[in-house]
Amino acid sequence: MANAALSAGPRPGDGYVQSFARGLDVIRSFSAAAPRQTLTDVAARSGLTRAGARRILLTLQALGYVRSDGRHYALTPRILDLGFAYLSSMPIWNLAEPVMERLVDQVKESCSAAVLDGTDIVYVLRVPTRKIMSIGLGVGSRLPAACTSMGRVLLAGLPDTEVEALLRAAPPAAHTRHTLTDPEAVLAKVRQARRQGWCLVNQELEEGLVSLAAPIVNRAGETVAALNISGQANRTPPRQMQELMLPALLAAAADISKRLLA
């Protein structure tokens, strides 16, 4: 995977706990496409032997993170504790939610917040108005940074050398006929987002979807998250979204950033 290729973290011999890493691989093997799996499925999807996968599954089952009907395994709601630990440890999200709700009331479009994780953005908050994407989005959802407005805003917070390394590790893929796949073209958009302090993406992730994003910054002026609003191009064309909604989005992002400083 691209994110694995980017990892420069510890390896066996310098603090790397391989059994723990394998346990995380087993957890990550479950997804919307594979919510229930046999032992053979888990072993194949996690790259482990059946014996290794079985030991980890039994451990997770004893801890209450996995359940089994004797043949199939599935995650339990307790697994949400792991993600909630991150959200509850970051007071920014409690501060951001009421601001996002007010923004949605004002612009009548969905609003989301995300952070950067390798070559992806990860959704940490979402206030929808209506379903506008065929992709089901919620907290924890991942999307490629290169073709999303929040992704480009988050990439804009990095030096060009880091952005170039990320684009080399995961070359932009075409999702629609509008998607920019040339790394230099994507880098130019990232630089534009850095200069102007916001980014608009028109139908690069999904046909008909337009999104507008702005950075949330901390006390040091570093981009720690991105805030966006998204809508349908046939209802809110890109120019209209920029003219009518950008001021409100920038004000909301500034409000959240200011709350971080309090």
UniProtKB/TrEMBL annotation:
Where is each IclR-ED domain found?
A: 78-262
**Biological processes per GO annotation:** 3,4-dihydroxybenzoate metabolic process; negative regulation of DNA-templated transcription; positive regulation of DNA-templated transcription
Under PROSITE patterns, the record lists:
HTH_ICLR, ICLR_ED
GO molecular function, one example? DNA-binding transcription factor activity
HTH iclR-type domain: which residues? 17-77
Q: Which Gene3D superfamilies match?
A: 3.30.450.40, Winged helix-like DNA-binding domain superfamily/Winged helix DNA-binding domain
Q: Which InterPro entries match?
A: GAF-like_dom_sf, HTH_MetabolicPath_Reg, PcaR_PcaU, Tscrpt_reg_IclR_C, Tscrpt_reg_IclR_N, WH-like_DNA-bd_sf, WH_DNA-bd_sf
Keywords recorded for this protein, A-Z: DNA-binding, Transcription, Transcription regulation
The source's superkingdom equals Bacteria
Q: Does the keyword Lipid biosynthesis apply?
A: no
Report the protein name in the record.
Helix-turn-helix domain-containing protein
Organism of origin is: Ramlibacter pinisoli
